[in-house]
Automatic annotation (TrEMBL):
This is Bacterial type II secretion system protein E domain-containing protein. It comes from the Bacteria. Pfam families: T2SSE (PF00437). GO terms for molecular function: ATP hydrolysis activity. Residues 8-278 form the Bacterial type II secretion system protein E domain. Belongs to the GSP E family. It comes from Candidatus Komeilibacteria bacterium CG_4_10_14_0_8_um_filter_37_78. InterPro entries: P-loop_NTPase, T2SS/T4SS_dom, T4SS_GSP_E_ATPase. Transmembrane segments: none annotated. Signal peptide: none annotated.
């Protein structure tokens, strides 16, 4: 790669870091773009990205083996460490026959759990010794950051053996009171399924896993939970109800009652996140927090998942939090505008009525 191209790439990455961007995008024929505080901005003082520059970026970010994988699969997700200063989650895919590069800037330090603006009930997750915890949200919702912060809090509080099985290792966890092993799929284990199988006879207490797509993988998660382990699962989902529907629907119909029983007996909590533009700059966190109780367990066993939303709304005093209530709080305190909150609301009529009472 030409020295000039390397200097340009390093300058662009420095700009992203200085402006505290969460993401950076490169598309041939467009200016490089940064996402800061949830908003996308074109860097119009930079050169428009050319196909040749995109190729130079790929050479910069990927090893030869990864480039071969990109050509074969037409997409790749990996992690790149830039000048020992910053870690980048690299996503490259194709559109109109041309590669597109998306970079997610991983925070240098794992933030303190108390600094994330999570509901008070999250302390219940840290104190759990067994069972399943779902940590969900869409891309860019901060779910990986929250999961890392929870693990780090456990690491700082008590002696455990922690194992992670991740598509790509974003946050590096450093042993404190706990011993931590982090496995990357494709490097340390062949697949998520293979990693979960290998872990069955390993000595550990806490497991973090992401990238689950099949009922075989979920069944292994259940086995780990039934063995007395705490299992944190990062997944893409909008609500607790949708997360449960996704898990159950991954099984054949004749296994429905069986998996609902397992979920009711082993699921302990679900934390679903949204990040919204904060008034004045930055991002504000909205959450849905489910803590397992008899009403939730019954709704799962009886296949009445639609009841979960109302259970969350009526159990705030018990530490639970409905997403709509979290959004109402953010609007009432002036942290988020009503216009930004409304698209995320589930029950828009109740949302409007609640704000009128304020």
């Amino acid at each position: 790669m030409a020295t000039t191209d390397t200097l340009i790439i390093n300058r662009l990455l420095s700009t992203a870091a200085e402006r505290k961007a969460s993401d950076m995008h490169f598309v041939a024929g467009s200016y490089p773009a940064l996402r800061t505080s949830g908003k996308l901005t074109m860097l119009e003082d930079e050169e428009i990205s050319t196909p040749d520059f995109i190729k130079q970026m790929i050479d910069f970010l990927l090893s030869e083996t990864e480039q071969e994988q990109l050509q074969k699969d037409k997409q790749i997700t990996t992690v790149y460490e830039w000048l020992n200063q910053m870690r980048l989650k690299v996503k490259i895919f194709f559109q109109k026959g041309m590669p597109v590069i998306s970079l997610h800037l991983i925070p240098e330090m794992i933030p303190e759990l108390s600094s994330l603006g999570l509901p008070q009930g999250v302390v219940n997750i840290v104190n759990l010794k067994k069972g399943i915890v779902l940590i969900g949200g869409s891309f860019g919702s901060g779910r990986s950051t929250t999961a890392a912060a929870i693990l780090n809090e456990i690491n700082n509080q008590r002696s455990e053996k922690i194992l992670t099985i991740e598509d790509n290792i974003e946050f590096i966890l450093v042993n404190n009171k706990s011993i931590i092993s982090q496995q990357a799929v494709g490097k340390d284990v062949t697949t998520v399924l293979g990693g979960l199988k290998q872990a069955l006879d390993q000595d550990f207490n806490v497991l973090l896993v992401n990238g689950l797509t099949t009922h075989e993988e979920w069944s292994l998660v259940m086995r780990h939970a039934e063995a007395g382990r705490l299992v944190l699962v990062i997944m893409t989902t909008e609500t607790t109800t949708l997360a449960l529907e996704r898990i159950i629907s991954s099984y054949p119909d004749d296994k429905g009652d069986w998996i609902r029983e397992l979920l009711a007996n082993n699921l302990e909590s679900a934390l679903i996140q949204r990040l919204l533009p904060r008034v004045g700059g930055g991002l504000a966190l909205a959450c849905e927090l489910m803590l397992m109780d008899q009403a939730i367990a019954s709704s799962i066993k009886e296949n009445k998942l639609y009841q979960i939303f109302s259970i969350l709304q009526s159990n705030r005093d018990n530490g639970m939090l409905a997403l709509d209530n979290s959004l109402i709080d953010l609007v009432r305190t002036g942290e988020v505008t009503k216009g930004d909150a409304l698209p995320e609301v589930i029950d828009k009529v109740n949302f409007e009525n609640s704000l009128k009472k304020f």
